[in-house]
Amino acid sequence: MSSSPAIVVEGLRHLYGARVALDQVSFMVAGGEMFGLLGPNGGGKTTLFSVLATLLVPTGGEARVFGLDVVEKPVAVRREIGVVFQSPSLDLKLTVAENLRHQGHLYGLRGRPLAQRIGELLERLGLTERNSERVEKLSGGLRRRVELAKGLLHRPRLLLLDEPSTGLDAGARRDLRVYLSQLCQQDGVTVFLTTHLMDEAESCDRLGILDRGCLVALDTPEALKKKIGGDVLVLETTAPERLREQIEARFGGPVSVLDTSVRLERPQGHRLLAELMEAFPGQIRAVTLAQPTLEDVFVHETGHRFWDDNRKSVVE
Asked: Model-level pTM?
C-alpha cells in the first residue's frame, strides 16, 4: 500500500435543491488500498461516487485524485480512473471481445497492444473461453467480470465501483472480492467502492460509513466493531419505552429503543442477560446476544437501523 494518497476529499458538500446530499465529508484513501463507503440507499454514496468520477460538480469543498482536482482537471482525472457503474453498461448483442475492443478504441487503443491487453484481462478474469459469446448469454457474475475488464482496460491507477455486487449471488460476490483484493495487493491498483452489503464492506481495508450525507465513522472494519466495546443485546418487548426506563434505572445506560426492541451494548453480555430475564419476568418476548457487527456499528453511530422493517432505506 502506497503512503501517497490516491483520493483526498475535504469538506465536500452537495445540495439537490434544498436537500443536503453530502454534508462536509472529509477522508483520504491511500494508494493501493481497498476503501469502502458503506451506507443505506439514498445516504449520499452515489453522489460522492459521481463527484470522484467527474460526473458531478459538488456544491462546495474539494476532491482530488492523485493530486488532481476533479473539478479543475476532469480530463486528467479520467485518464487515471476506471469506472464500473451500478447499472450495466455492456452492449448485450456484442460479444465479450467486441465490447472490450470498442472500449479500447475510446481510449485510443488499437492493434496488437489492444489485443494483448484484452487477452490478458480475459485470462485473469476467467473469461477466455467466453471471448466469442454474446454478453446476453452470460450470467450476472460473468457480465460483472466483463464490466471490470472494461474499467481496467486502459490500466487505471484507481478503480471506482458503485455497488459492484448488486444482483450477484453469494459465489459471484466472493469471486469479485478475491479479484479486487488481488488488484490491490499484486497490481497496486487503488479500489474505491460503494456498498450497502455488510459482507462486501467487511472485505475492505478501511471503511467509511455514510448516513444522510454525513460521514459518521471511519476506520478498519475490525476497529469499528471494537469501538462498541462489548456484546450487543437486543430484547423484543411489547412496551419498549417502559422496559428501557426500567433497565436504565436498575442497570444504568445507555439503552436505546429501535421499533419494538430495546438495545444495549455491554461487556460480558451473557451475565447481564441472565439478570435482565430475572429482573423483568414476562416483559421480554425474545432476546438476541451477539458480537458486534458492522450493522451494530451503524446503529451505534446513527441511533437508527440500517434498514426499516420493509427492507427499504431509512433515508429514501
From this structure: 0.86
